[in-house]
């Protein structure tokens, strides 16, 4: 049995400046003993298939700034499981689109500069702890409560990232079993230039993270507003 700290999308270099301190406080409060990053630690804005912001940094510079932004996270979390998301797989997606086999690229762990103690789950993969499925979430079904939709589809409790504006825990039961869907929000700074694409959406990001206890209970912790304790 485990108490799992769940860290959603960071989108470096656009990590919210209060994110690490907040996550550490949740880790200390719940005394977690495992950590899962739900993916998209990197934004790779300049490699996106959508138009890039003209004032944003070039691809190389963005990658260097992202590594710098993630350095304190790597220093603190020496062991973790990482789920590759749609943004952090942008290098491989661009390569395949250009006819370059993925096998010719650097391993994800090297490209992301991760510590030795980190395990990587490839895109669309699933990591399970205590019978709970952890996924990035960039695949159907979606809807208002994507994690619950995934949980119902496979009839297993499921934790997702990817949907920055989705946050919370919903439960579902039949005569034999109770399962939950947990949507963990995000931890990126929506005012950063690489996140400008999201400003047209009516639904705003919800900053927070999650904790899963013994595979039975999920708690979403919302990050306080800057002017509140």
Describe this structure in words.
There is one protein chain. The strands form 2 sheets. This protein has a 6-stranded mixed beta sheet with strand order 4-3-2-1-10-11, with helices on one face. A 5-stranded mixed beta sheet has the order 5-6-7-9-8, with helices on one face. It is globular. The chain has 5 helices and 11 strands. The mean pLDDT is 92. The chain has one domain (3-222): Purple Acid Phosphatase, chain A, domain 2, CATH 3.60.21. The chain is an alpha/beta fold.
* Total tally of structural domains: 1
H/E element sequence = EHEHEHHEEEHEEEEE
* CATH topology value: Purple Acid Phosphatase, chain A, domain 2
User: Strand-residue fraction?
Assistant: 15-25%
User: Shape from CA axes?
Assistant: globular
Give the C-level CATH assignment.
Alpha Beta
Strand order of the largest sheet: 4-3-2-1-10-11
Estimated helix fraction: 10-25%
* N-end to C-end Cα span: 32 Å
Average pLDDT across residues? 92
CATH architecture label:
4-Layer Sandwich
The count of DSSP E runs of length 2 or more, i.e. the number of strands, is: 11
Number of helices: 5
Contiguous runs where pLDDT drops below 50 for at least 5 residues: none
Largest sheet: 6 strands, mixed
Q: Would you tell me the structural class of the helices and strands?
A: alpha/beta
Rg is 17 Å
Brief characterization of the structure:
By secondary structure, the chain is of the alpha/beta class. Helix content is 22%, strand content 24%.
List keywords for this structure.
229 residues; single chain; 5 helices; Purple Acid Phosphatase, chain A, domain 2; 11 strands; six-stranded mixed β-sheet; alpha/beta
């Amino acid at each position: 049995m485990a108490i799992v700290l769940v860290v959603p999308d960071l989108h470096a270099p656009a990590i919210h400046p209060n994110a690490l301190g907040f996550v550490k406080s949740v880790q200390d409060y719940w005394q977690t003993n495992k950590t899962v990053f739900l993916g998209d630690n990197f934004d790779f804005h300049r490699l996106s298939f959508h138009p890039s912001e003209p004032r944003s940094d070039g691809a190389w510079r963005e990658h260097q700034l992202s590594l710098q932004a993630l350095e304190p996270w790597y220093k603190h979390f020496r062991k973790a499981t990482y789920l590759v998301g749609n943004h952090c797989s942008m290098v491989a997606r661009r390569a395949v689109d250009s006819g370059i086999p993925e096998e010719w690229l650097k391993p994800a762990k090297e490209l992301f500069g991760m510590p030795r103690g980190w395990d990587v789950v490839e895109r669309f993969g699933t990591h399970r702890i205590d019978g709970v499925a952890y996924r990035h979430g960039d695949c159907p079904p979606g809807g208002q409560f994507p994690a619950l939709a995934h949980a119902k589809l496979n009839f297993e409790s499921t934790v997702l990232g990817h949907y920055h504006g989705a946050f919370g825990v919903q439960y579902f039961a039949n005569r034999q079993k109770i399962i939950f869907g947990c949507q963990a929000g995000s931890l990126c700074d929506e005012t950063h230039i690489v996140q400008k694409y999201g400003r047209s959406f009516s639904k705003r990001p919800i900053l927070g993270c999650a904790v899963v206890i013994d595979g039975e209970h999920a708690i979403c912790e919302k990050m306080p507003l800057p002017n509140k304790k």
